[in-house]
């Protein structure tokens, strides 16, 4: 169902601005297109050829390599049609580039998605999507994927309060990741708690499993029974908002968390021993925040030179203070039939303590791989919002 052919509704095919003029200047080609001037490298234009002989990079059936295109590749002629540029090369090869494709690459920078940050005001903006619609209708599923892209969190409503519904709805978003705790797990308070989620204690908002090289991408919390009236309120925090708050108010501490390797660990003796050293705040190639990993309960004793260790601890302390500030928290008590799905490399989740003698709190939870969710988004964007399909999304806690 999600297998739309790559070029079926690509923006380059759907939108064809007119090519107004071209001019060759050494190894550059200037093209006036859609009212603006763009300059392309001839080497780039040759390498961008996706004819049958050169092959297609998206499908991976690609036969031309970067090494096949010399720095001084010879272009013999360039002919502009209204919506297509035809280039003839010194070896007789002919490349054709559509005007939509050229316009999309005219700026020299990939279009990037800017996340919509939130604090306690999420209540008014949180996307809510009915279970039946998301299960049956790709347009509704796409709406919720868009909300996940924008805010990193969405709510599903009307989810049957039965075990099978968890995997049924989560599976719409991508393959469920099996971990050492299983595929779908039940979070119920129990006296022999193996993880903190099984206790009734409060939890500071955190990302799950930062001790993995690749932490869970998206998390589902499906409420079967709530601890209504007895605590157990979910606390959700936008890590991107917290990071930008730090960047503005305490840039030195922000800097520490984007550069210093912090170690998170988890050990169950004789069974598992995970340990990962990574940045708490991941930046992308342009310096934008692209991912968060933070869990106070998994912080190993940190390592840093003596003149830097206190600065690192202060950065971790400031992060914790911001996360615990109610002004940064969306607070909600999940009701049976509600499910929260959120980006575990952006949105932190916690909860207030509850009294297990007053009410049983039962959530079912599972993890979906991050690139699986983004793949579902892009695939459906080809159908429902072609201009959004190729935007670079924030890629998570990459380091
Ligand atoms: Fe957790």
Helices and strands, with pairings:
Elements: H1 11-14, E1 19-25, E2 28-33, E3 36-41, H2 42-47, E4 55-56, E5 61-62, E6 75-80, E7 84-89, E8 94-98, H3 99-104, H4 122-125, E9 128-130, H5 131-136, H6 138-151, E10 153-157, H7 163-170, E11 176-177, E12 184-188, E13 203-206, E14 218-225, E15 234-238, H8 239-249, H9 251-259, E16 262-268, E17 272-278, E18 281-283, E19 289-292, H10 309-324, E20 329-332, E21 339-343, E22 347-351, E23 362-368, H11 370-384
Parallel strand pairs: 9-10
Antiparallel strand pairs: 1-2, 2-3, 4-5, 6-7, 7-8, 10-21, 11-23, 12-23, 13-22, 14-21, 14-23, 15-20, 15-22, 16-17, 18-19
Helix pairs in contact: 6-11, 8-9, 8-10, 9-10
Q: Can you characterise this structure?
A:
The chain has eleven helices and 23 strands. It has about 400 residues and is α+β, with helices and mostly antiparallel strands. It has two domains: about 90 residues, NE0471 N-terminal domain-like (2-Layer Sandwich), CATH 3.30.2020; about 270 residues, Clavaminate synthase-like (Double-stranded beta-helix, 4-Layer Sandwich), CATH 3.60.130.10. The strands form seven sheets. Strands 9, 10, 11, 12, 14, 21 and 23 form a seven-stranded mixed beta sheet that branches. Strands 13-22-15-20 form a four-stranded antiparallel beta sheet. Helix 8 crosses helix 10. The chain is elongated. The structure holds fe (ii) ion (FE2). The site of fe (ii) ion has 4 residues, from loops.
């Amino acid at each position: 169902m999600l297998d739309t052919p790559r070029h079926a509704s690509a923006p380059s095919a759907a939108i064809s601005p007119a090519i107004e003029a071209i001019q060759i200047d050494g190894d550059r080609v200037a093209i006036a297109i859609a009212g603006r001037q763009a300059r392309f490298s001839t080497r780039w234009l040759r390498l961008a050829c996706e004819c049958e002989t050169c092959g297609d990079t998206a499908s991976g059936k690609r036969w031309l390599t970067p090494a096949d295109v010399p720095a001084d590749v010879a272009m013999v002629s360039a002919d502009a049609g209204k919506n297509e540029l035809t280039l003839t090369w010194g070896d007789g090869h002919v490349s054709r580039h559509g005007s939509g494709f050229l316009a999309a690459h005219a700026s020299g920078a990939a279009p990037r998605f800017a996340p919509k940050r939130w604090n306690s005001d999420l209540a008014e903006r949180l996307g809510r999507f009915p279970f039946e619609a998301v299960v049956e209708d790709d347009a509704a599923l796409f709406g919720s994927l868009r909300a996940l892209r924008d805010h990193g969190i969405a709510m599903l409503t009307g989810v049957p309060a039965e075990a099978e519904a968890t995997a049924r709805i989560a599976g719409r978003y991508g393959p469920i990741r099996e971990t050492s705790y299983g595929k779908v797990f039940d979070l119920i308070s129990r006296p022999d708690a193996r993880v903190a989620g099984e206790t009734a204690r409060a939890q500071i908002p955190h990302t799950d499993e930062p001790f993995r090289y690749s932490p869970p991408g998206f998390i589902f919390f499906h409420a079967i029974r709530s601890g209504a009236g007895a605590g157990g309120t979910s606390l959700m925090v936008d890590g991107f908002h917290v990071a930008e708050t730090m960047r503005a108010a305490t840039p030195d501490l922000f800097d520490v968390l984007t550069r210093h390797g912090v170690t998170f660990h988890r050990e169950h003796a004789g069974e598992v021993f995970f340990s990962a050293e990574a940045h708490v705040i991941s930046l992308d190639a342009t310096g934008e925040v692209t991912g968060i990993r933070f869990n106070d309960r998994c912080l190993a004793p940190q390592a840093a030179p003596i003149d830097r260790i206190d600065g690192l601890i202060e950065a971790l302390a400031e992060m914790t203070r911001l996360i615990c500030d109610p002004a940064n928290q969306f607070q909600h008590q999940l009701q049976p039939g509600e499910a929260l799905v959120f980006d575990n490399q952006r949105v932190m989740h916690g909860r207030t303590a509850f009294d297990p003698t007053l009410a049983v709190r039962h959530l079912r939870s599972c993890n979906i791989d991050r690139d699986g969710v983004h793949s579902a988004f892009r695939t459906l964007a080809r159908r429902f919002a072609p201009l959004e399909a190729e935007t670079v999304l924030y890629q998570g806690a990459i380091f």
